[in-house]
Amino acid sequence: xxxxxxxxxxxxxGEGGEVTVHLADDHPGANDxxxxxxxxxxxxxxxxxxxGTPPPRIDYTDVENDxxxxxxxxxxxxxxxxxxxxxxxxxxRVGLPRERVPQLDEVTVHVExxxxxxxxxxxxxxxxxxxxxxxxxRTFHSTQYLRHPDVPLYTPEPDAIHEVIGHGHLLATxxxxxxxxxxxxxxxxxxxxxxxxxxxRVFWFSLEFGVVEEDGELKAYGAGILSxxxxxxxxxxxxxxxxxxxxMGTADYDITHYQxxxxxxxxxxxxxEVVGGFFVTCTDESIAAMRRGAKAVA
Length: 298
Ligand SMILES: [Fe+2]
Fold this sequence. Notes:
This protein is of the alpha/beta class. The strands form three sheets. The chain has a four-stranded mixed sheet. α6 links the parallel β3 and β4.
């Protein structure tokens, strides 16, 4: 089942104003009081943020900077091998620090001159319509916490590493940055929330977990794969299906483990044609028809 809350740990504010991030029992940080306190602190900073002001600056600890450094070190050779060419070029061009976690306003300073994207903070889950809708104005809602240091290779939750290393570099590419923006434009055209959920699944199976044939090799262009140094070694072994928007928009997925089914394009041009074509042309009517079709098959 698709559950938005599955992606992010819920955040609540108590009567006294205290902010709590509710980690699931099986979360790697569930039994680590220091990690939990840190998550609460970072979420509180994002909740206190006012649009139009700079994102909160987080004073990252040595442990957090270590996690960032480890992931950057592990991912660098894997990006060379497994990432789509535009992404590899963007990593060089954006030039983010690899020794410490960058602040969100630093990410904006690096990415905005290239492609116009800005980063704003998110405490956790941003409602689908707001998250995707803001992509139209090249605004990216980003969490600022780091995954638990015991499991740096993968996170079930989108953390700063996923948002910045995965999406940030994609947003600096001509093709995939534009596809993000087109997803935003499409979202703002849709009235029915179920259709926005359909679009979010298409986004999931493309800009989060998409793979593409390039120069005779299978490469990743999805931010979820490109930010996980465990999963990036596995995607070539998964089940690959041809791009099919109706199927992608109605498929279920589980974020708690590596994605077993991936949608593969034969070229970057095909991603633009099929996924971009969907974002450009989709309407409430066209998506409703695809959802009805999927139900009829099921
Ligand atoms: Fe993501």
